[in-house]
Specification:
The structure is a single chain. By secondary structure, the protein is an all-beta fold. Helices cover 0% and strands 58% of the residues.
């Protein structure tokens, strides 16, 4: 079976925490685990992004939302799908208080090349993963899909990891609270 490559770009930086999600391709799932241990699964069937809003009189708390298409804001600061000739140009897939979210991860992604979060950024170019802006120690693991651990260290400064040395394939990366997959060709 030939695996379809999905090249991801970060669309939006979440202003509150400096956290961004990978832009999600079609046919993947975003899994949100709450601080209460519940899981919300959001099926993505078209290009999706995420952001936060809040710190406004009507919305004093920070709210996470995932959306498709074109989004604008209502007078109270809440995101809403933009309308053209009465037709919604996007959709809000989920909204949740940021303080209620424990972890966000994804399944069904074959690759990403940039993601940021937890006061750090991760980019991947030609099989080299660069972790930057780590302001405090972050535990990083890289494992094959079979679960074989290729990299397992705690970093506290900018770090480059040459994934090419581990061979071609898909790797699961965990860096702080981020979990994502990388395709090394």
């Amino acid at each position: 079976m030939i695996m379809k490559k999905i090249y991801m770009k970060v669309l939006v930086i979440l202003a509150i925490l400096g956290l961004a999600l990978p832009a999600m391709g079609e046919d993947c799932m975003m899994h949100i685990r709450t601080v209460k241990g519940e899981t919300l699964d959001v099926k993505v069937t078209e290009r999706t992004a995420a952001a936060t809003y809040g710190n406004l009189p009507a919305y004093p708390a920070s709210v996470f939302f995932a959306y498709t298409g074109q989004i604008t804001t209502a007078e109270d600061g809440r995101p809403i799908p933009e309308e053209i000739d009465g037709v919604a140009q996007g959709a809000i897939l989920c909204e949740m208080l940021l303080s209620e979210i424990d972890e966000i991860n994804f399944s069904g992604l074959s690759a990403i090349n940039e993601v940021a979060g937890d006061k750090m950024g991760v980019t991947v170019t030609d099989g080299v993963m660069r972790i930057s802006r780590a302001s405090e120690p972050v535990h990083v693991t890289v494992a094959t899909l079979a679960g074989i651990l290729a990299y397992d260290r705690t970093i506290s400064s900018d770090t480059e990891i040459d994934l090419n040395r581990y061979g071609k394939g898909i790797y699961t990366v965990a860096a702080g609270s981020l979990t994502f997959k990388i395709l090394v060709e």
